[in-house]
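User: Okay, second chain of the day. Same drill as before: sequence in, structure tokens out.
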Amino acid sequence: MKSLNNMKKLGIILSAAVMMACNSEKKADKADDSAATATTATADSLFFHYDSVKVYSKNPVSKDARVTDTAKAVISYPVFSDKLINAFVEQRSIVSNNPDKTYDSYKAYVQDFMNSFDDFQKTNKDRIQTWFLDVRTEVVRQQPGYLSMISKYANFQGGAHPNYVHTYLNYDPLKHREIILDSLLLPGAKPKLNAIAEQIFRKNEKLGPTESLKDKYFFENDTFKLNENFTVTDQGLKFLYNPYEIKAYVFGITELTIPFSQLTAIAKPNSLLSTTN
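Assistant: Same drill. Structure tokens below.
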């Protein structure tokens, strides 16, 4: 079993509490707070553009006038004409390592991060640290009834290195609901899906069929387990593990894709995983 320190680090970076949030309106005359990009759309897709909120600390990290670095917080996200989709994106893009905190807008979220830095500076004037928060939610796939996005969260608040988490967001824009893994599978199919994924994982990692996982990976009880961080691609069902989730930070992100051909027996008919869909 790996050290409690690794588990604590994982708990911090993955304690992305899903916060209830309201839509945040950006005024065009506040260029320092938000910046919109060109509208994007393809056939059978939703129109959207990207917007962002940026906040910089007014406190430099050093008393040396030649040092101009300071803390920065930025969050960028797609904006759709559908308010329900926007509410979902905002709710899932606001990631905090404090589950007791809630935010009513993107701006409140980044401002709270900046307030934390300013408070730190007041009591640690001799410690030179440039904090940053960078959250970028991007559209990765669209088709009728399916909108897939990835939220890329990165932050640094001191320590050996920044922390980052990539989380897929799956949404049905027709029925206005989040798409969860169970909704794509036949009842009771999770164990079989896990077994298929383990075979692919072992092949990718160049492991034997019965080789132990405990020496290189963080799986509980030396047992492979899929997470719920997935998206549906042209190739199949793709899963993503973040740093500290199953491996040490140095190994970065781990991905595996289960081809559609291996899902035919466990996919719900007419679902995103069905070849007849």
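Strands lie at 48-56, 72-80, 132-143, 146-156, 163-172, 177-178, 230-232, 236-241, 254-259.

User: Thanks, on to the next one.
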